[in-house]
Specification:
Layout: H1 3-27, H2 30-55, H3 62-85, H4 93-111, H5 114-123, H6 125-142, H7 150-162
Helix pairs in contact: 1-2, 3-4, 3-6, 4-5
Length: 163
């Protein structure tokens, strides 16, 4: 054992002694002290369980959006590699599906639950697809491609009709 281990053991023993001494001062009866200690342990386990459960919840925030964009870039890179090798490339819904599949795996790994990952993707599907569409549309514009998102097509059509 290292010196740190010994110091931690001494501190733990001291804290347990203080805890039990305070319980004895309140009740004085050993059976009541044991009941209170059991209740305290139950309450502590409930609180820890709630904290762990909350820690596993994924919130749709900037981190998730950044992760989605990274997955899009990975899919795009794989497409570029496949294109250079003369293999089939993903397009449209297949590209979206590949990104969503990667996101599901990521959420599943974070939460430890496939069900939570599926629920997260289902609950946020429209946001996820919107980010994918916007990012791919922006990426296509940067590469000189003329594909527009659905919203951009509607706006372009309205502008043409007004002219």
């Amino acid at each position: 054992m290292t010196t740190l281990d010994l110091v931690l053991i001494v501190i733990i023993i001291f804290l347990v002694t203080l805890y039990l001494t305070s319980k004895f001062k309140e009740n004085g009866n050993l059976s009541n002290v044991i009941k209170e200690v059991k209740d305290d342990l139950k309450q502590s386990s409930i609180v820890v369980n709630e904290l762990v459960s909350k820690a596993k919840d994924i919130i749709f925030d900037e981190t998730v959006q950044k992760t989605i964009k990274e997955f899009i870039m990975i899919v795009e890179e794989k497409n570029q590699i496949a294109k250079s090798k003369g293999e089939a490339v993903l397009a449209g819904d297949d590209k979206k599906f590949a990104v969503i599949q990667r996101l599901s795996e990521w959420v599943s790994n974070l939460t430890g639950s496939t069900e939570r990952a599926i629920g997260f993707v289902e609950d946020n599907q429209s946001k996820i697809e919107s980010i994918i569409d916007d990012y791919i549309s922006f990426s296509n514009k940067m590469h000189g491609k003329s594909t527009l998102s659905e919203a951009e097509k509607i706006i372009a059509d309205k502008l043409k009709n007004q002219s």
